[in-house]
Structures are given as structure tokens and as C-alpha cells.
Amino acid sequence: MDPEEDAFARQRQRYGEEHIAAWEQTLEETDMLAEDRREDGWEATVVMVPHTDTVSRDMKEHDRFGLMHVVPNNYADAFVEAYDEEAYTEYLVYGDAIDGVMYVAIELIDPEEERSIFVPCKYDMTTSEGMTQSALDEGALYSHFKTISGEILGRFRYEEFEPLVAPPNEDAATSTVTVGDGTDDGDA
Hints:
The chain has helices at 7-14, 17-39, 73-82, 129-138, 162-165, and strands at residues 43-46, 51-55, 66-71, 90-98, 101-110, 115-124, 141-147, 152-158, 173-176. The chain is an alpha+beta fold. The chain has one domain. It is globular. The N and C termini lie far apart (37 Å).
């Protein structure tokens, strides 16, 4: 197949040195942010997710949508040990977008216990129209954390999700979330 005619091949060709540098910078900044939290007396966990997909409701047999983060086995235990869906009620997003690809560090925050989970990730917003529409329909966006084998480790509900679908600015965006409210059917 001619790369000029194949959209997937064209998409892969556009990722060059600028994208490699952006990912490396995201990882470095995530480590710096986590260290800053630790210096402030917080517990900070960094969970690598080498693959994040933008998923809409109509893409799978299930009703889940949002950011699907694949957590490698060597980080899964750390995530499960640190994460409590009811305790982590806020988030911050740090990063930028290049050619529609988001390079961000998501900080999930438990303000009561002064704990943070940092999730460096990258995902392509040029193919996320369905996810964004699902979020608009629901009034919320989700992050789902799963292992490579598909086991769901946890999820986070973003009531205000614009920072995750639009490039964050230098003043990291923040939101307070409500977990388990009446609009959450448990399947998203």
C-alpha cells in the first residue's frame, strides 16, 4: 500500500525527533513534579503508562470510554497500592500538544492524605472525536487503568475534562471531581 494513500502510515511518519523530545521532556517533568511533592511532605507515586488510547463508547463491546491507560505489570502493584477511587478527588494536568498529540503528566490528588499519583502519558487527539463526544454526552471523562492482559485496576472520573482534550497551558489546569454521584452508572 502506498504510504501517501494510507492514513495510518502518514500518521506514523509524522512522529519525528520533536515527538521523541516531547515524550522525554514529559518523563523528566513528571519525575521533577513528583520530587517537588515529596519535598513538600506528600507521598508521590509515578506510574508509567507506555500506551494510552482514546476510546469512545461505540468502539468496544463494553460501555467504557475515555483514556485507556495500559499499566505494565511492574507498575500495576504500585498503582493498586496507592489508588483509592474515593480518596483521589482532584487532578492537575501538565504538558503540551504537538501536531494533535498530547504529551501530559496527569496528577491524581488525594488532598486529605496528601498523596499524588503521577501518570505520564501521550495520546493522539486527532483520532479522538468519538471519545470527546462520549464525554460531552456523559458530562464527564474517565481514565481507566488496566494491565496488558486487560484487568481493570481502577478508574478516575473527570467532571471538568477540557484540560485533557485541549493542550494545557503553563498554569496547569485543575479540577475537583465528584465520585459516585447520580450521573455515574458504573459502566463508563
